[in-house]
Specification:
- There is one protein chain.
- It is built from 3 helices and 20 strands.
- The chain has 376 residues and is mainly β.
- The chain has 2 domains: 182 residues, Immunoglobulin-like (Sandwich), CATH 2.60.40.420; 166 residues, Cupredoxins -  blue copper proteins (Immunoglobulin-like, Sandwich), CATH 2.60.40.420.
- The strands form 4 sheets. It has a 6-stranded mixed sheet with strand order 11-10-13-18-15-16.
- The relative contact order is 0.17.
């Protein structure tokens, strides 16, 4: 496995410290390139089938004003798979099977602001360049683009098309290659499932009853909203104050069954962590243990048990869990600052594991969180 620093942009000063270097896995096989979006579930078309399928997607780069759990709004730029409507952060998940062919058309539908993000020194970022960590395009296409694996750029109004054949099962991160664009919300999850093998992340991996994808991210609301106003941002002073799972912080993570674990006692789950953020996140479970079975699109030869898993920026981790104790358990980032909303605890990168009895009831009542979201 080859490690490579996160590609920063032809104007490196524009992103000084926006993100830490991230691992880009270059699997020497043709797999995939690019950008989708929706709350980290799946704008999916992949099901388990033996015969390879062809999937066609169109994604639009747009902006949005995301409402946080505490009512704060944050300006974002992200992907949408809808012909009309705002961006989603994270972008729609792509879920396909090993051997499938995927065609993606990306439309840069942003305002001119997208191409003119200023930094503190007055430098401007470049046009969006899309990539997928762990995926490689044919060498002739790399040469034609002249920008390395998986990269194509687009100006406002342009359409760029990508094609790839999904080959290596695993969990991947797709994102814009310009760190400031990625920080603004241009990222999502890609899942490649083994062909003809149901309910297993990899051939020979433990079976699961339910599967979840948690896209982890962090945002500096002051920086994001300065971008909206057209103000210069010194990314060296990046200070995140919101920490998200699938674009939500607690307690909003409790409002969607895809953002918390909801099972009956004795069931097993597969959780795919995809870190699209700029910081390390330490995912921790109460009452149960993880078995780490994969990382960065690769099955581990020697799975291991942990109750806290470190996921660095740009990395992915696949964990299996047997949930055999009824009740409700915390599931959160073990870094204290990351379980707050704008500095207020509790919040942030936190959700629950809800393990019901066979009759569907839970011996522990759901707490009254007193939020507008809970009343919906």
């Amino acid at each position: 496995m080859t490690k490579k620093n996160f590609r920063v942009t032809r104007n490196p000063k524009a992103l000084a410290l926006l993100v830490m270097p991230v691992v880009m896995l270059l699997i020497g096989v043709l797999v995939l390139t690019q950008i989708p979006r929706e709350p980290a579930r799946a704008a999916t078309k992949g099901a388990q089938q033996v015969h390879a399928q062809v999937h066609n997607y169109t994604f639009y780069i747009r902006d949005n004003s995301m409402k946080m759990a505490d009512g704060q709004r944050i300006y974002v730029v992200g992907y949408s798979d809808k012909a009309q409507g705002p961006a989603q952060v994270p972008g729609p998940s792509i879920v396909v099977n090993q051997g499938d062919s995927v065609n993606i058309t990306v439309v840069n539908d942003t305002a001119q602001l997208m191409n003119t993000f200023p930094d503190a020194a007055g430098n401007l970022t470049t046009a969006p360049v899309q990539t997928i960590d762990g995926v490689k395009l044919p060498s002739e296409l790399d040469k034609e683009i002249g920008m390395g694996p998986l990269a194509k750029s687009s100006q406002k109004g342009q359409k760029v098309s990508y094609h790839f054949t999904a080959q290596q099962p695993g969990s991947y991160l797709y994102h814009d290659s310009t760190p400031v664009h990625m920080q603004m919300g241009l990222y999502g999850a890609l899942t490649i499932k083994p062909n003809g093998i149901l309910n297993r992340a990899y051939p020979g991996a433990p079976p699961y009853n339910k599967e979840y994808t948690f896209v982890l991210s962090d945002m500096d609301s002051n920086a994001h909203n300065s971008i909206f106003k057209g103000s210069a941002v010194d990314w060296a002073k990046y200070h995140p104050n919101y920490f998200l799972i699938n674009g939500k912080s607690w307690p909003d993570t409790e409002m969607d069954p895809n953002d918390s674990l909801n099972v009956k006692v004795g069931q097993s789950v597969l959780v795919r962590f995809v870190n699209a953020g700029s910081e390390i996140h330490m995912m921790h479970t109460h009452g149960h243990h993880f078995t780490v079975i994969g990382a960065n699109g690769q099955k581990l030869a020697h799975p291991y048990q942990k109750d806290t898993v470190m996921v660095a920026p740009g990395e992915t981790a696949d964990v299996s869990m047997l949930l055999n104790k009824p009740g409700r358990y915390m599931f959160h980032d073990h870094i204290e600052a990351d379980i707050t909303n704008n500095g207020v605890f509790p919040g942030g990168m936190m959700t629950t594991i809800n393990v019901s009895l066979p009759n569907g009831t839970n011996p522990v009542p759901m707490p009254d969180m007193g939020t507008d979201a809970q009343k919906k």
